[in-house]
Amino acid sequence: MDTTTFSSQYSSDEYGRTPLQALFPEISLPRPVRFWLLLILLIPSILCTLILLYYFIRDRSLRSPLNNHVIIVLLIVNFHGLMIGFPIQLNFLHLGHVWPQIPTTCLAWQFSDIGIFTTTGIIMAWASIERHILIFHDQWSMALFFILMLFAFHLVNSYLYIQLIGVLLHVLRQFKELQCMAQ
Questions:
Q1: What pLDDT does 48 receive?
Q2: Are 120 and 78 in contact (CB under 8 A)?
Q3: Cα(159)–Cα(155) distance, rounded to whole angstroms?
Q4: Choosing a second label site near 182 at 20 to 30 A (CA), which of 24, 93, 103, 124?
Q5: CA-CA distance, 111 to 79, in Å (whole number)?
Q6: Cα 168 to the chain's mean position, in Å?
Q7: What number of other Cβ atoms are within 10 A of residue 34's Cβ?
Q8: Which residues of the chain fall short of a pLDDT of 50?
C-alpha cells in the first residue's frame, strides 16, 4: 500500500480518529485500563519467573533431572519475552505510538511477539516428545536424546534464520507504511 494513498484515503473520520485508529479500532477496554492491567500482572510474572529460575539453577536436585531442563529453557525464553515485548507494549499503550519510532524497535517487538510465541510452541512440542520417551521408552533415552537435540538445534537455527529475514522485511515495510503501530 502506498503511503500517499493510505493518507488520502483515511485522512480522518467524523470522530476525529487518526487513520490507524480507524483501521484498527480499540477493543472494549480503554488503553489506560489495559496499561495498568498489564503492568499489575507483569510485575508478579517477572518476580515469579526470577524466583523459579533461581531455585532451578541453584538447587542441584531440581537442575539435574532431564525432565526439568525443558522447564528451565521455557522460563528463560519467556523471560526474554517479558523483558523485551511487554515493555514495548506498555510504552505503546501509554503513549499511543511506538517510541522510539525506528525499525529496530519494531523488529524487537515483532520478534518478541512472533518469535518467542513460536519458540515456546516448539519447545512445548519437544517437551512432550521428550517426556513420552522418558516415561515409555527409557532404554532409548540417551540415543533419542541426541537425535532430539540435533533435530532441535537444526529446527531452531532454521527457524531463527527464516524468522529474522521474514520479520525484518515485514517490519521495514510496516514501518514505512504505518509507523509500526498496527500491532
A1: 97
A2: yes
A3: 6
A4: 124
A5: 14
A6: 15
A7: 17
A8: 1-10, 182-183
Grid cell digits, residue 17: 480518529
| 83-124 pLDDT, tens digit each | 998 999 999 889 888 888 887 787 788 778 888 888 888 888
Residue 145, amino acid: F
C-alpha cell at position 71: 522447564
From CA 12, how far away is CA 24, in angstroms rounded?
13
What's the predicted TM-score (pTM) here? 0.68
Where do we find the cell 484498527? 24
Segment 94-100 long-range contacts (CB within 8 Å, at least 24 positions apart)? 94/31, 94/35, 96/31, 97/179, 97/181, 98/179, 98/180, 98/181
Which residue, chain included where needed, has cell 505510538?
A: 97
Distances (CA, A) of 46 to 81, 84, 85, 168: 10, 12, 13, 28
For residues 162 and 143, is the Cβ–Cβ distance under 8 A?
A: no
